[in-house]
Design brief:
elongated; 19 helices; two-stranded antiparallel sheet; alpha+beta; DNA_S_mod_DndB; single chain; 2 domains; DGQHR domain-containing protein; eight-stranded mixed beta sheet
Length: 487
């Protein structure tokens, strides 16, 4: 803080004294002073939009040179955070109306429903550094704020000028996400139209803004500038080397959350909600939190991450459920529930030592079946009789021999004579060429067919085998297969 004499500010005798003491751009900030492992820090809150304007990230080698103290930005991660923050702004606008005892807004509630509700939302505190100041903050002007009733120090007021840039140490993706959100809000408010690219909603791409949506985004922009605050820990006078060390410590010394536990706790993703409400609670699907490493210890449950992976293909045709919103799930849940009902009817599935009784207990087989349902009923390129094909698949699923002894699973390890002898002639018309791609489905040892770990290579081929067994149309036409083989 600026030194004082007898409790009063020191007199300013020269122009240099005036410039050091402050300037007309100063903003008063209420802070709490702390000592993080002995290092003086400020803890303060400010509106999200104001923080973005006052902060910067040193991650551009061409611009920042030797002061770079951040990793390269991951735009995909920042975009996901932007969707989360936008949803949070809608939630905040709804909450603010309740606090101000205003009438609830039907457009806000409808937008929240379309984006997907969740129990709680928050942005974790950010860690920043003011580089051009004394490490103890001695050259930052400040005042003590006293509680008039108790005469105790309640907080401090410091004055930050334009030169006091908040250099982000931990939180550059959160800051970039804020920028993406503000750009989105500025664009839709100015053009009255949703962007075709970079639309954070996941729906209404390129559509004109209706009156209700316009009110929603105006309120969201207002709460971002006023009501929505973020918590910031401000370090003082760190050098770039010290910033890099703090970045390392904050990001490398923590323990990563187990995937199964993270999915168990997440109540925001609509696919995850379907798993919890329809599969676990209603259907009684046995979901476990740890991987099954020894088949003899299998109690019949599926690891949560595998159930999520199967449903990611079933609903979204993706390898994960990240970014799913209610509009991507709406209208699909009844058929998805029927899919899992059919799965549970497979002999041995869900029983003790299920993996030894049926290959259907292996996630890659479930992914193959999920992909068939998606292609038949949910894909934009689904066949005209796709719903009928799905009905055949789910009705006749128990006609497929999912035992470990079925020679179909060993097709690529059999000779042409063995294929003929085991009744597999004709299957080659459904399968891709043996000369291209990975054809190592796994191995058959000690009476068990264990499929490999490269699921994305394996499950489409298993789907082709099931198509052949149930006499469903092949994935590719004969002409397409010939052309593919020739290529």
């Amino acid at each position: 803080m600026i030194p004082s004499q007898n409790g009063l500010p020191a007199p300013l005798g020269t122009l240099d004294d005036i410039l050091e003491a402050g300037d007309t751009s100063e903003k008063p900030m209420k802070v709490f002073i702390g000592h993080n492992l002995g290092n003086r820090t400020f803890l303060m809150q400010m509106p999200m939009h104001e923080f973005f304007a006052m902060s910067e990230v040193a991650n551009d080698a061409g611009r920042d040179g030797d002061t770079v103290a951040q990793r390269k930005l991951d735009p995909v991660h920042a975009h996901k955070l932007a969707i989360y923050i936008l949803k949070g702004l809608v939630s905040a606008a709804i909450e603010r109306r309740e606090i101000l005892k205003k009438e609830s807004s039907a457009p806000l509630l409808d937008m929240m429903r379309r984006l997907g509700k969740q129990p709680y939302m928050a942005v974790q505190p950010l860690v920043v550094n003011i580089r051009n100041c004394n490490p103890r903050g001695a050259d930052i002007r400040g005042d003590r704020m006293v509680d008039q009733r108790t005469e105790e120090t309640a907080a401090f007021k410091v004055f930050l000028a334009q030169r006091h840039v908040l250099w982000v140490i931990d939180g550059q993706h959160r800051r970039k996400a804020m920028q993406i959100v503000f750009d989105f809000l500025e664009q839709v408010r100015a053009t009255r139209q949703y962007p075709k690219k970079g639309n954070l909603l996941g729906f209404s791409d390129g559509d004109a803004l209706n009156a209700d949506d316009a009110k929603v985004w105006e309120e969201c922009f207002e709460v971002a500038r006023t009501y929505c605050t973020i918590l910031i820990e401000v370090h003082l006078g760190l050098t770039p080397d010290e910033e890099r060390q703090l970045f390392h410590d904050l990001n490398r010394l923590g323990k990563k959350v187990d995937t199964n536990l993270a999915l168990q706790f997440d109540n925001s993703n609509p696919v995850n909600l379907f798993i919890k409400e329809r599969l676990i609670d209603a259907l009684g699907l046995q979901v476990i939190e740890n991987d099954v490493k020894a088949w003899e210890d299998d109690e019949g449950g599926l690891p949560r991450k595998d159930v999520v992976g199967v449903n990611a293909i079933l609903f979204l045709n993706r390898t994960n459920i990240s970014g799913a919103n209610p509009s991507m799930v709406e209208g699909k849940t009844d058929l998805a529930y029927r899919f899992w009902t059919a799965i549970q009817a497979i002999p041995g599935f869900g029983e003790e030592r299920a993996r030894e009784k049926t290959v259907a207990a292996q996630p890659v087989v479930l992914k193959a079946l999920a992909k068939l349902v998606f292609d038949f009923s949910f894909s934009n390129r689904k066949p005209t009789d796709g719903d009928e094909l799905t009905d055949v698949l789910l009705t006749r699923l128990t006609d497929v021999d999912f035992s470990h002894t079925n020679p179909m699973w060993q097709y690529y390890t059999l000779t042409p004579e063995e294929r003929m002898r085991n009744g597999l002639d004709g299957l080659e018309a459904y399968l891709p060429s043996e000369e291209s791609g990975n054809r190592d489905l796994g191995s058959h040892q000690l009476g068990f067919m264990r499929f490999g770990a490269k699921h994305n290579d394996i499950y489409p081929i298993l789907g082709d085998m099931i198509r052949w067994r149930l006499e469903l149309p092949p994935r590719r036409s004969a002409e397409a297969r010939i052309a593919l083989a020739a290529a």
